[in-house]
Amino acid sequence: QEKSCRLSAALLGEGSEISQEQLYELLKYAALGKCHSAAQPGWCHIYHQSHLAGVVVVVLHEMSQLHFYRFYLQFKHLRKVFQHRFTLTPSANFPVSLYGEGTNLKPQNTPQGLTSTSSECITKSSDLQCDPIIRRYGEKKQGLTSYTLTLEEQRQNDYPIEGSPGCKGYISTECDQQRTDSSPLFGLDCEMCLTAKGNEVTRVSLVDARGQCLLNELVKPESAVLNYRTRFSGITKKMLLPVKTRLSDIQTRLKKMLPHDAVLVGHSLNSDLQALEMIHPSVIDTSLLFARSEGRRFKLKFLAKAVLGKEIQCEQKLGHDPTEDARAALELAQFFIEQGPTKVAELNLEMLLTAEKLAEVSQNKAALQPQGCGFQEQLNEPPPLSKPCFLDCLQVTGQKPLLLGRQGLDSSGLCQSNLSTSNKQILQRALEDVPLSKFSIIQFSLGPEYIASHLHAGLYEKVRSKLTDMLTIYAGPFEENFCMKSVKREFGRCGPIQSLRVVTETFQPYVCIQYEVLEAAQLAVEGLNGAEVAGSCIKVQRPVTAAMLDCNVLIKELELDVENEGVIYVAGLKKSLTETDLQEEFSQLKDLETLFLPKDLQSGKHRNCCFLKFQKSQSAVDALEAINGWTMKGSELRSRNALAPGHLWRWIWQMNHSNGKQGKHIFYEKMEQLSDSEQDLRKKVKKLDHRIKKLYRSLQNNTLCVVLFPGVNSTHGSQSGLGLMGIKNDEGRSAC
User: Fold this and answer.
1) Does one domain contain both 469 and 532?
2) N or C: which terminal CB in the chain sees fewer CB atoms within 10 Å?
3) Residues 65 and 154 placed together within one structural domain of the fold
4) What are the pLDDT digits (tens) for 449-500?
5) Contacts for 530-535 with beta carbons within 8 Å, 24 or more apart?
């Protein structure tokens, strides 16, 4: 049965911008898997990448995040389909930053029989038969049990074994259940110091199959320390002084944590088990798994970089990080099992290691060369290679990337631009050609008449003005000598207040309150309209302007937005509560997945509200009923469905603190021109949304689709971009 691909992203409430480099790494991993040094990006995770049917990137030329929210109602398809969104750092040269530098779509054949582009290469299949990995494991992909060490292999490599003379007093993990290919993997790594007894454990780390840290503990040695080996272990005398945990405590905890069919993974794991004085029957040793000839072994640092594309054990750090090392060993084993021996052999690790050593020698020579010498040799040196693009790698592996668009693509050298091609013609080509390609980039544009800088400035001011009105409420009337402190306290229970002032232009005083989050303003309108506050029965309403006439429609659509599905907003928290306190208080809520506590982006202090994301929508509904009226530490909580995702919350905060300076000098001069063209622009945006919908529906299941509003970065100012992404599933909506 075909596995369904999923996408998870740690984006709820984070509001942090994703850089062009991070986006590039995501696309590279999605297109290539773990080959060619591609690795899972840290900010999101693709499950079952090898089952992806393809990758489609839709670029909306010269459009930014503000376009999405100015025409939010017109982008009906985008907001209902893509659950994962992120703010994107704008780039001065977006095509190059997206495709990568050094793009060359014409692979060259070298005399050695290798097909290469830049530093990437694939070994001829005839050479694979001699590879130590193929000789040991064969060419076919196998389950994890085929890669665990046999009892004899453990004995030969100095693993602690039950009944062996040197293992007297060792503790067994008692994981004696039969292993299967579905048995769970755990990464293990220890740091040791030299004591009077020998090598003793001073730090232990254990990670599960998802790379989550289960144990990271300092351990007090039994004997006096002779050498802390700080350069490698990172352990110092000061670190161990307050530690009370002993080896026996760690042994007990490991026995409890490991299931009976657990498979331990580590790099030269025998040293760790010897230091732990523990016996475990089923192990995968990555120093032996990635086999070399003549008994040599690859270092973990090299394998992590060459196979996973990760830098570990960096010289800048004091000592090794055992959690990082345990996770690297685990991911290496997972890569080997998922890809199989042939894919690993094709990486040609021996050649990569040789190249790395040659580069080090070259750097050392350059560092030792006296200043002013070797100038003539430098003149004759070829220019350094630019960063290889993953589109090159796709072509080397026989996959042809598809690039369609009418503007901007020529700057990357990928294809000739065709300014006469319409969005309609681009869509038609895409419907025909995308199914034939593993990786596609489709670029649409509203046209040059809609991307001028003055229109961007006008759009920004309109979006800012509308969001400000939606965050603002008017409450009153109050008595002449009303208590302002009572008003602030009551309305503050709905969420963080940006500003509060008394309106004196009316017969009786009113209060104008601007909140920091949309949910707070909506809670105030819904919960305090008609309530008695500061001794007066008051009315609560938003400003009445032409732009606010569709406010209720917009609020409803935001509430139904797929990104807010299963997310609720909770206000009335005491600022003394920490995130740990809240996790404990809300732990009784069923299916709670994530808690986000918004912080002031300048002071770093958290607000009196939070967002809760649930695995199931019904659980969020149940939580709303449970939380409303709930008292926590003497404070009554208020809650409602979420309206603004993390990236929009950050954007609102930035606009609240920009004082409307951006583009204002242009805005007033050009407002009339913007008003004349905006109606036509709405129609074009609606049509563009329809075209993306048509393209999306034509995609195969398990296709990763990324829609990018690249943002603007020019001499007139910059506007952040926006990314929407998801993996299409059977229901037509993106899988999460």
Assistant:
1) yes
2) N
3) no
4) 555 444 556 667 788 888 889 999 999 999 989 999 999 999 999 999 999 9
5) 533/475, 533/478, 533/486, 533/487, 533/490, 533/491, 534/478, 534/479, 534/482, 534/483, 534/484, 534/486, 534/487, 534/490, 535/478, 535/479, 535/482, 535/483
